[in-house]
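Appendix C: a fully annotated inverse folding record. The material below is reproduced so that readers can follow the format used throughout the book. The structure is listed first as tokens, followed by the designed sequence.
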């Protein structure tokens, strides 16, 4: 019961002209949550190229590292704060790129409850912050919101096929709630939101042993170990090079569409094809073996990027065979095995 009160739904408040105007001012103060991670640190590099940006990173270093940001250590336009976003955060900023969340299955399953807290309470806190200071906020959601998709390739209007109680649910359901929170703060409080659905991304600075397929295969090939293709090996993924991803995220933030918008590379490969490609490019002498898979592994994944093309003028430029050598250099340096 409404207790006799006449409840009518209010239209969402329009952002004030002043609030809108600040998105075009010089000296933008930009918060990047998860900025010490793989994608976040590349985003920071790009944002720092613009002299008018002040960049603040908050990160709890769960999967990220200060080392990814050492090039900005001490820079007058840069600040790094150790902070866990499941706790409230008080900073004054104009834009928030909200990336904080472990992305690799090994790490997000390691403490599933914590992953949920990061997605739900962490996103709530960043939205509360955006509301208080009038900032625009971008969420890096994921293709995992489509689950094991029954629509192929995946378009943004597909609602997904997700197991709510499985071992991946802390991540994919967590991101689904994060998206819901974004749209409810937008409708209810007029917050300016942007939602990106990121598809598998690879490149330098990925954790070497984080279990994701491109980093696994590359590290295995460099170490002369067999490439571990998880069964059946016919499952597909589409891999986007990190500089293309960062370009897409910035275009989304600076454009006019809320999203959700798929950002990914539509080139689709089976895991066996990926293994063959890595073997051929890095070390033709190694073996490819089949190993057990984990539960609920999606069988296929490929973004439909029509919206990104039309609304952001974005499409990826770097194909897998060009991206792998760029990543190889970084991996060889960190593993300590130079190319012969
Ligand atoms: P990553 O693990 O390298 O980076 C995540 C960063 O968030 C790390 O630096 C970590 O320490 C930090 N973090 C985690 N929990 C935190 C917390 N509670 N408080 C503060 N910091 C916290 O992962 P990534 O690949 O760079 O992914 C970045 C974002 O993109 C994530 O939101 C992820 O879900 C999304 N995404 C990535 C991919 C991909 O293929 N890499 C695909 C889809 C979506
Ligand atoms: N919050 C924050 N930083 C801020 C403002 C809010 O971390 O600058 C957190 C706040 O602690 C709360 C969440 O964001 O847990 C949601 O804030 P909101 O104001 O929307 O909700 P309320 O505080 O009324 O529950
Ligand atoms: N995979 C694989 N070998 C590995 C690691 C992963 O064959 O050493 C497969 C995995 O089964 C999945 C695909 O690669 O089908 C992508 O897995 P990843 O963990 O990189 O990303 P996600 O499942 O989140 O797309």
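Designed amino acids, in order:
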């Amino acid at each position: 019961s409404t207790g006799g009160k006449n409840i009518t739904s209010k239209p969402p408040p329009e952002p004030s002209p002043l609030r809108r105007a600040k998105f075009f001012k010089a000296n933008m103060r930009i918060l990047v949550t998860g900025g010490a991670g793989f994608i976040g640190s590349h985003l920071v590099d790009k944002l720092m190229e613009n002299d008018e940006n002040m960049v603040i990173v908050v990160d709890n270093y769960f999967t990220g590292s200060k080392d990814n940001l050492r090039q900005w250590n001490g820079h007058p336009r840069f600040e790094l704060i150790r902070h866990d976003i499941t706790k409230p955060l008080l900073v004054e900023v104009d834009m928030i790129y909200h990336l904080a969340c472990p992305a690799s299955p090994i790490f997000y399953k390691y403490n599933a409850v914590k992953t949920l807290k990061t997605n739900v309470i962490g996103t709530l806190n960043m939205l509360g912050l955006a509301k208080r200071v009038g900032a625009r906020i971008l969420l890096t959601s994921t293709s995992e919101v489509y689950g094991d998709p029954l629509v192929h390739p995946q378009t943004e209007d597909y609602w997904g096929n997700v197991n709510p109680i499985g071992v991946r649910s802390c991540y994919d359901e967590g991101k689904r709630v994060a998206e819901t929170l974004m749209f409810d703060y937008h409708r209810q409080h007029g917050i300016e939101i942007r939602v990106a659905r990121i598809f598998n991304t690879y490149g330098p600075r990925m954790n070497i042993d984080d279990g994701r397929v491109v980093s696994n295969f590359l590290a295995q090939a460099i170490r002369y170990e067999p490439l571990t293709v998880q069964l059946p090996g016919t499952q597909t993924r589409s891999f986007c090079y990190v500089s293309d991803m960062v370009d897409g995220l910035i275009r989304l933030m600076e454009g006019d569409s809320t999203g959700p918008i798929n950002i990914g590379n539509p080139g689709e490969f089976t895991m066996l094809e990926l293994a063959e490609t890595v073997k051929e490019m890095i070390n033709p002498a190694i073996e490819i073996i089949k190993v057990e898979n984990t539960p609920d592994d999606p069988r296929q994944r490929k973004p439909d990027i029509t919206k990104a093309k039309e609304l952001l003028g974005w499409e990826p430029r770097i194909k897998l065979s060009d991206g792998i050598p760029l990543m190889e250099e970084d991996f060889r340096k960190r593993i300590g095995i130079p190319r012969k």
